[in-house]
Amino acid sequence: MSNILVPQNSGQIYPLNKHSYLESVVRNLKNVSVFYGFIGPHGKRLNAWGDASGKDYYSRKGSLNGQFAAIFGHRYKRWQDHFDNALANGYLSYRENHRHVVYAPVVSPVGGGANVITTGDLVWWDDIDLTVRSATSFPWTSNLATTQQNFSKVFLGVALDPFPNTNPASDPYNAIQVNTVRVDVSPSSLWDFTDQNSEDHYPGSIMAPAKATGNSLLAQTLVTVAPLGAQSWAGYADGIARVMRVDPGTPTTSVLVNVQSAFWGYEATSLEGS
Questions:
Q1: What are phi and psi of 229, to 5 degrees?
Q2: How far is the C-alpha of 218 from the C-alpha of 74, rounded, in Å?
Q3: Lower CB count within 10 Å: N or C terminus of the chain?
Q4: What percent of the chain has pLDDT over 70?
Q5: What's 260's DSSP letter?
Q6: Which phi and psi (to 5°) does residue 72 adopt?
Q7: Is 93 helix (H, G, I), strand (E, B) or coil?
Q8: DSSP label at residue 139
Q9: What is the pLDDT of residues 136-172, one digit of tens each?
Q10: In 3D, which of 41, 23, 44 has the Cα closest to residue 92?
Q11: Cα distance between residue 206 and residue 233, in whole Å
Q12: Are 164 and 177 in contact (CB under 8 A)?
């Protein structure tokens, strides 16, 4: 267990505990629900790709490839072949995310206002209330570009838990998650977000939170702020996400990105602790 350092309004730093792990994600790419016998010890039915409930994928800690022998024993080779064939035929997508997770407070120790976070929200660090908050609550300044730029300077990562949380996740690194949500700050994790403009997507384009109705940001919807050819975060101060999947010719509302926290990763603007 290590930590990352985030600022306090007083000029002091505030440590957030962090741990890292590998997560496997399998997504059904077919337009009908499918039962895959090789997912998990008893198989798993995945909904049709793009299902609004979000149940078109399965995730677990560790490498799925590395689990076949442990789960299936002498049947390992058969299930591995089924898995490989599903990938080769385009029935499934598979990726491994190297998660870096911090435990961020959601109830202010200094009397800050109410807080609501949904799993999958882009969240920011409030250095006055000393809490993490959803992008939906980020203060609006002048226009979208200015607000996006301000957000990028305090963007922490992607929430893995909701708040309020009536069923705290079972997590061996933090068994009692009281007034805390887990936030992934890894620049190598991959995320599917909604694209407000349903654009063609090309690797390297930079995206930022989109504008909601009224003067506020959306927490799970992105918009392009720098087009194809952006090879670095430098010079694209409004952006917090980089497109990682090409799908030219098929505009879609779903876009695959990785994100850049202001406090952790390759081009973080804050201190890192250990």
A1: 110, -5
A2: 48
A3: C
A4: 72
A5: -
A6: -100, -10
A7: strand
A8: P
A9: 999 999 999 999 999 999 999 999 888 876 665 544 4
A10: 44
A11: 8
A12: no
